[in-house]
Amino acid sequence: MRRRSLILAAVPAGLVTLSACGDDKSDSSKASDKASPSASAPSAAPPPKIVDGPLPAITAGVKFGEKPTVAKGPGKPSDQLAVRTVIAGGGKAVAENDYIQADYLAQVWDTAKVLTNTYDHKVPLLTQLAQGQTLEGWRYALTGKKVGSRVEFAVPPTWAFGKQGNPQVGVKGTDTLVFVFDIKDSFNAKSSAKGKDVPQDGAGVPKVGTNTDGKAPSIDVPKTKPPTKLVSEYVIEGDGPVLAAADTVLVQYKGVIWDTGKEFDSTYSRDALTSFSLQQVVKGWAQGLTGKKVGSRVLVVVPPALGYGDKPPSGSGIEKDSTMVFSVDILAKM
Q1: Domain residue limits, the chain
Q2: Are strands 324-333 and 207-208 parallel, antiparallel or unpaired?
C-alpha cells in the first residue's frame, strides 16, 4: 500500500484523490474537465491484441501539435485495439505507470462526432498510464510510444467504457472511440527539474543539492533557529509556465524537519511521483509554489503557522510546532 503524501491538507479523502480530469475549480481544470473523459474502472477483460487497423484518415491538421480533423470510421471497426504511429517521435519511450502530458482529440467511430479535445483549450492532458487511472485503451495503446509521437488508435467498448458507455460525455455502450494523441512529454519516478542552477547564497537558509539524476537531493539545514516566515527560493530555475494558486501540479519532493534534519516524507523513497491541487495542500506549499515556474526545483521552508502547527498528522514523525523544509521539483501542471 502506498503511503499518502503528508503535504496534503486535512480534507476528505474524496477530495484528495485526483482523477484524470482534476478536482479543483480553476479555469484550467474546467478546460481539462471538458477535454478529458473520466478514467474507466480497472478492466476484467484480458489485454487486447494490437492490430494495424482499420483506422480513419486524418484529413487536416496533420502536423504534430496541430488540431487534427479525422474522417468517419471506414466500415466496421476491429474488436481489438487498432493502433498506428502517424508521426514517430525521437524522445524517450513511455512505460506503463508513467505520467504523460499530451494533446489529444476523441471522436466516435460511426459518426465522427468529436467528443472532446485539448487543442482548443490550450491545456494539455496530464494523466498516468496506470490501471484504474485512465482508460484501459490508452494504457495499452500508448505504452512503448516515444515522446514527440502522434499516435492514432481505435478503442472498442471493452477497453473504454464497457457496455454501460458514458452518457455524461455522449458515449453509448456500443461505441468504438477514435483517439489522436500528440505525446509532448512523460514523467516517472526518476524525473527531475530542468533548468539553470541558481546561487544559494542566502544566510540562515538550507542548501539543496542540484543533482538531476532522479535521485533525492541533499538538504543541508544550518545549525541556527528556523525562520519565522515562509521561505521559497529557486534552487534550479526552469523555463516553463508559472503556477497559479489553483493549479494542479505533478512533483518530486523530499521533506525534512529543521531541528533534526530527519526525512519524514519523500516521493523518492516511495519511488512514485505525486500530483495534487495547490488548493489541497498545507498553506506553506500553496504559497511557496504559487508564482514558481514548471521545470524548477524550489526550496520551501514552512513555519508551523503555515504547516501543521500543534496538530501534526498522527504517525508522521512530525512533532508539534515543527518547521518543515522541502525540496520540490515542479515537473508539470494541468
Answers
A1: 36-187, 196-333
A2: unpaired
Q: What is the DSSP string of 268-317?
A: HHHT--EEEETTSB-HHHHHHHTTPBTT-EEEEEE-GGGTTTT-PPTTSS
DSSP SS3 for 33: helix
Instruction: Find, among 289, 249, 292, 251, the residue nearest to 268 by Cα.
Output: 251
Hey, which CATH number is domain 196-333, 2.60.120.10, 3.30.540.10, 3.10.50.40, 2.60.40.2310?
3.10.50.40
Q: Which amino acid, 241?
A: P
Residue pair 107/113 in contact (Cβ under 8 Å)? The answer is yes
CA 66-67-71 angle, 5° bins: 125
How open is the CA angle 193-199-201, to the nearest 5 degrees?
Answer: 130
Domains 36-187 and 196-333 share a fold: yes
Cis-peptide into 54, omega within 30 deg: yes
pLDDT digit string, tens, across residues 42-86: 556 899 999 999 999 999 999 999 999 999 999 999 999 999 999
Of 61, 57, 66, which Cα lies nearest the Cα of 109?
A: 57
List of residues 6+ apart from 258 with CB closer than 8 A: 206, 221, 226, 301, 322, 323, 324, 325
Instruction: Give the contacts of 30 (CB within 8 A, at least 6 positions apart).
Output: none
Q: What is the DSSP letter of 144?
A: T
Count CB-CB contacts under 10 A for residue 271.
11
Q: CB 290: neighbour CB atoms within 10 A?
A: 15
0.70 surpassed by pTM: yes
DSSP labels, 52-73? ------EEE--STTSPPEEPPP
pLDDT digits (tens, 9 = 90+) for 233-276: 999 999 999 999 999 999 999 999 999 999 999 999 999 999 99
Domain covering 36-187 in this structure, CATH number:
3.10.50.40
Distance CA 103, CA 294 (A): 18
